Amino acid sequence: MTHTLIVRWLAGLAAAWAMLVLPAAHAGRSCEAKPLTARSIEQGMQLALRTSQALDAEHARTGARVVVLARAGQDLSKYRLRYSHLGWAYKTAEGPWRVLHKLNACGSSEGSLYRQGLGEFFLDDLWRFEAAWMVPAPALQAPLHAVLTDPSRSTALHTRAYNMLSYPWATRYQQSNQWALETLASAAEPGVGSREQAQAWLRFKGYQPTTLQLGALTRLGARVSSAHIAFDDHLNEKRFSDRIETVTVTVDSAFAWLERAGLAGPPQRLAL
Fold first, then answer.
1. pTM, full prediction
2. Mean pLDDT of successive 10-residue segments in the chain (272 residues)?
3. Distance (Å, rounded) from C-alpha 202 to C-alpha 145?
4. From CA 118, how far away is CA 139, in angstroms rounded?
5. Whole-angstrom Cα distance, residue 73 to residue 71?
6. Where are the domains of the chain?
7. DSSP H helical segments within 32-172, as ranges?
């Protein structure tokens, strides 16, 4: 079977699966009810297949079993951001790569962790069919793999209360990228056993969240219309000004920090 036929066959299976069990969950993409098209499914599966091949090549070359993987689910260019969501991809003992990441149930204020294949990760309403990943430093590979494959440890710092604009140095809420960074802290530093300790480690390592400029009307409109957006965990001097400091959808800030801190290699990209 040719490469193209394989992709179309997988896309056909994915389409049937999507109509039956696709969860109403999102992170870093629009939550509008839009049906998946045959073309978007084929592109998503194509991107998943090529990403899998690239990660397998990385594994064969360096032995890497964990990467931080990003997708572009929304157009965030007005905020000067390229990617909207990230998760941890790890190689299983059986061979395929799996992605552990946090998703928000559409229209709700709660989030859950999901283990998905690359096809599911990219089988979404993507703004741009592009994958980006970074390979964590060799010293982090084993600790991260151990945490990600352990159901208890991988969920230890998870908070169900979801806020897309959660403040990075608070624990009332937790959004997707925030969970990913805090989980990294728990893997890198054995003494980290709480979200407060994870955030202290991130500060110590120099993580700098993105500061988004959101006006009062934007904040009010978002809070009234969206159950997954809140501002009551932000500092008052930020909350009542035109500056909201948030880790929201800042894959870009995470990528910049990981490379700057020597915690991962440079970003690698793959686009259709």
1. 0.81
2. 47 40 48 72 95 98 98 85 94 97 83 96 88 98 98 97 86 94 97 97 94 52 45 50 53 96 98 94
3. 19
4. 25
5. 6
6. 3-271
7. 38-62, 118-122, 138-148, 151-154
